[in-house]
């Protein structure tokens, strides 16, 4: 599956903490039967899920049972969702790991959150399939946030974790990196970089690749979100993709999001959190 910014509106489904997405992609909230953005407080708690072919339709953290809940991967159905169990042995770069320790398939998920817990991310992937198989990513904001109105430039630093698969063979790479983001609230511009990339698992045999550059995009003040395009080079081959994220915390002091990058035969699906 190849994603582009042209379909970004359909890639991210915005859900309010008490509402859900309708079949036509609009947002339904309490008191709104038909949906639409007019009734949505964009600064309120929200959840954004990457959607597309072979992408999970539900990704949730079950803190009480120390599990990640996943729907729309093989061997789940409307009655039985898939549950990935906590696996501390795979924890890395500040992210908690979860894995399927029973059943036929091998899935790994990583979850991270900001220091306050106000923004959080989950990514899940598997190296068991050719043509990338099944995966998913989500980010969320837990409380109301308000972005600065004054002329101000903010710098964010945090951590990234990526899962990379190949459409010509099995296996999954795991990549740790630093996340550096910048927001200019004077003209509502956002950009960033995924730097210091390190392979901690290399099943595909592909090199780690260059930094991922998040190209300039416009901050959506109505929803306190951002989305744009990314570029990267791996082994002399140029690639591209998309990113999408959210502001959270007091005056937007935290960010979280996902990145999808396609380079040659590989696709990397990763998530980040960063704070100022």
Helices and strands, with pairings:
Elements: H1 8-11, E1 12-16, E2 20-21, E3 27-28, E4 46-50, E5 58-62, E6 67-71, E7 82-86, E8 96-99, E9 108-113, E10 119-125, E11 136-141, E12 153-166, E13 169-184, E14 189-201, E15 212-218, E16 225-234, E17 237-248, E18 254-263, E19 266-275
Antiparallel strand pairs: 1-4, 2-3, 4-11, 5-6, 6-7, 7-8, 8-9, 9-10, 10-11, 12-13, 12-19, 13-14, 14-15, 15-16, 16-17, 17-18, 18-19
Helix run count? 1
End-to-end gap: 34 Å
CATH architecture: Beta Barrel
Unreliably modeled segments = 1-42
Structural class: mainly beta
Rg value: 18 Å
Written overview of the protein:
This protein has 276 residues and is an all-beta fold. The protein has one helix at 8-11, and strands spanning 12-16, 20-21, 27-28, 46-50, 58-62, 67-71, 82-86, 96-99, 108-113, 119-125, 136-141, 153-166, 169-184, 189-201, 212-218, 225-234, 237-248, 254-263, 266-275. It has a single domain, classed as Porin. The strands form three sheets. A nine-stranded antiparallel beta sheet has the order 1-4-11-10-9-8-7-6-5. The protein has an eight-stranded antiparallel barrel with strand order 12-13-14-15-16-17-18-19. Strands 2-3 form a two-stranded antiparallel sheet. Strand 5 (58-62) and strand 6 (67-71) form a beta hairpin. It is globular and about 50 Å long.
């Amino acid at each position: 599956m190849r994603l582009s910014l042209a379909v970004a509106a359909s890639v991210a489904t915005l859900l309010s903490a008490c509402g859900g997405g309708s079949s036509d992609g609009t947002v339904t909230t309490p008191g709104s039967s038909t949906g639409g953005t007019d009734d949505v407080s964009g600064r309120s708690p929200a959840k954004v899920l990457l959607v597309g072919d072979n992408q999970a339709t539900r990704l949730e953290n079950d803190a009480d049972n120390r599990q990640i809940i996943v729907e729309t991967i093989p061997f789940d159905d409307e009655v039985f969702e898939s549950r990935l169990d906590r696996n501390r042995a795979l924890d890395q770069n500040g992210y908690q790991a979860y894995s399927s320790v029973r059943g036929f398939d091998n899935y790994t998920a990583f979850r991270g959150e900001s220091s306050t817990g106000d923004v959080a991310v989950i990514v899940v992937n598997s190296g068991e399939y050719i043509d990338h198989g099944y995966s998913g990513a989500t980010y969320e904001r837990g409380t109301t946030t308000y972005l600065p109105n004054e002329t101000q430039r903010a710098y964010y630093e945090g951590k990234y974790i990526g899962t990379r698969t190949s459409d010509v063979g099995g296996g999954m790479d795991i990549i740790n990196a630093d996340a550096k983001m910048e927001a200019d609230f004077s003209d509502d511009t956002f950009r960033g970089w995924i730097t210091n990339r390190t392979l901690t698992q290399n099943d595909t045999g592909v090199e780690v690749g260059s930094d991922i550059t998040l190209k300039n995009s416009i901050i959506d003040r109505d929803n306190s979100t951002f989305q744009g395009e990314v570029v990267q080079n791996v082994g002399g081959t140029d690639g591209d993709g998309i990113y999408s994220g959210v502001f959270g915390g007091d005056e937007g002091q935290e960010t979280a999001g996902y990145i999808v990058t396609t380079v040659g035969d590989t696709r990397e699906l990763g998530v980040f959190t960063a704070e100022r």
